[in-house]
């Protein structure tokens, strides 16, 4: 990277280093939907310097767009929205290439999507999401689905597996004090109690004191290390009884850290799961299941180091950094160099393991030239490696005729609040006047609890599932339904009822599955209104959920799918942040649905 670009991106390079910036600069983003949300998402990706973006949408700019989208001007009316937004976004960063196109230019084939680093859907239908996931899932291309609706927004990242090396998590100190390696033990033996005056004694690092005092403790206890808390407390008392360093700052640090460093080094559950994964244990037998071969080959090499008695012997490569401590510059720099040298030696062993693994790859696989520097980076972050794995989402289909029956049942109990086609409340003749499709599609939702965040997500999803099926003026003309009927108050209540029906039956016992991905509303002899009222069933929890859904749905219906720029700006920032995590393979991305609630100023993870 040139010096000018280094200076330009100086602040963000401090966050994800030059390697992360290189990944960003080489990335290609596919974005579906030219709207306020996509403009905000791409703005926050163009400024930090992605390689290119492709914006797909067939809509043209109207006067209504100018009233809410700050990126558009009067001169854009009649033009493709994707063209107008693309032109303005590329002005923000000349290093970024912007390409626009309509939906017809998209080819739903693996070869078309393979060229993209990530795919982002902004306020798009679940039908499109399902179609994109069918292609991108096996390619392990991240797909971020995001929505901005009034004062609410959501985003969810779909990917089968995501491997993170540089998680930037809190580093874990491992100084090898209970089982010191030869070099640090030799240095400790040389300088322990080697000074005659107090000022010189105060400059001996506490690492040396702990290592040598622990050696003395083992000699006095048949070679045993203190394991129980009682024994660790006894060691601390044994340490405190030594008057040689007593009263000095370094001795106080040794006392403070004495129990902390007496625990045997262990690996966290995330790394243990990685070591236990078949992709790591038997990498050559599972190549057909692996997309990120460099990661899993490195993990397999690290696993070999950890479990081999003549290598790590149940220890990971030592840290090449040491904490700040009271010490002379002489001792601190010497000790730091000792740990660095040991880290490099351990990393070379892991790298040798890695080279042997890569040599065994079939000739049909590409050659992976993984440098020693990359292996060192992997070992340096070994204690905070992360692998996020997910099951492919299930999309369920809901029959609109079943929704018709449900809303008709509601209308029999609340005739003033529900409209039916042709004024009839007969379920067999009823068809929601606002819908033009025979079925709706929605991701399957499963919650361990149901509160405000779950109600927000359910209602947003339900509204999205019907939003792409609402009549346009042309549809109304063809069907003989007037726009007044669609836009009137009764129609609003009708849509609200449909949203509520979807939500209630996604979570209530009245839902039955006829196959893996199709549900029908099982009204039986009890209408949905009876279920909502609690008749014939113990539904105290359902009552609260339904009441919550009703309130949330009313708020969502106020916006009717329209965007508020401030909401889209906030959601766009979150989406860009998650995108950068996926592109750079740094930091830990959200593995749940993130909800933005600007009404209460809250962000939820569901």
Automatic annotation (TrEMBL):
<dbReference type="GO" id="GO:0005737">
    <property type="term" value="C:cytoplasm"/>
</dbReference>
<comment type="pathway">
    <text>Protein modification; protein neddylation.</text>
</comment>
<keyword id="KW-0833">Ubl conjugation pathway</keyword>
<protein>
    <recommendedName>
        <fullName>NEDD8-activating enzyme E1 regulatory subunit</fullName>
    </recommendedName>
</protein>
<dbReference type="GO" id="GO:0019781">
    <property type="term" value="F:NEDD8 activating enzyme activity"/>
</dbReference>
<dbReference type="InterPro" id="IPR000594">
    <property type="entry name" value="ThiF_NAD_FAD-bd"/>
</dbReference>
<dbReference type="InterPro" id="IPR030667">
    <property type="entry name" value="APP-BP1"/>
</dbReference>
<dbReference type="GO" id="GO:0045116">
    <property type="term" value="P:protein neddylation"/>
</dbReference>
<comment type="function">
    <text>Regulatory subunit of the dimeric UBA3-ULA1 E1 enzyme.</text>
</comment>
<dbReference type="InterPro" id="IPR035985">
    <property type="entry name" value="Ubiquitin-activating_enz"/>
</dbReference>
<feature type="domain" description="THIF-type NAD/FAD binding fold">
    <location>
        <begin position="9"/>
        <end position="601"/>
    </location>
</feature>
<dbReference type="Pfam" id="PF00899">
    <property type="entry name" value="ThiF"/>
</dbReference>
<dbReference type="InterPro" id="IPR045886">
    <property type="entry name" value="ThiF/MoeB/HesA"/>
</dbReference>
<comment type="similarity">
    <text>Belongs to the ubiquitin-activating E1 family. ULA1 subfamily.</text>
</comment>
